[in-house]
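User: Study the chain.
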Amino acid sequence: MGGHDGLLYRFKRWMYPGDRPNPLARLLNRISALQFAAGFLAPRNWVTLEVRGRRTGRLISFPVVVADYGGERYLVAMLGDRANWVHNVRAAEGHAVLRHGRREPVRLEEVEPAARPAIIRRYLALAPGARPHIPVDRRAPLEDFARIADRFPVFHVLPR
């Protein structure tokens, strides 16, 4: 259990073919975004990220897990650099809102790959749903995380 070969792992990978959410994953993400934004039956670090779409300008809401590390907060893109929310955050110059019962305007500052390994490891400890998407066991040494850190953007959450 917890490996990259179990039924749950295969199901979660099926929901994100080519690291893009299929229709079921999109529906579940919408439901989770509403739940996390309301702060309903969700841990405090499960939040909704709101950012302007880079093409439409519409507000996009997406469920994310905030990783705490070294007294700071971070967002990790479990689907890597191609995740839509990553492109939108970059286009919005880091301006976003986190919601969990209340709105928190934030600025997301991208973390250099060399500083990401420990944050990604912490993220995997907090976000079991992300484990099938990041090809390193959550208990692996930091060297293993360093090998993949450039493929998974990390954003430092700062007050706006």
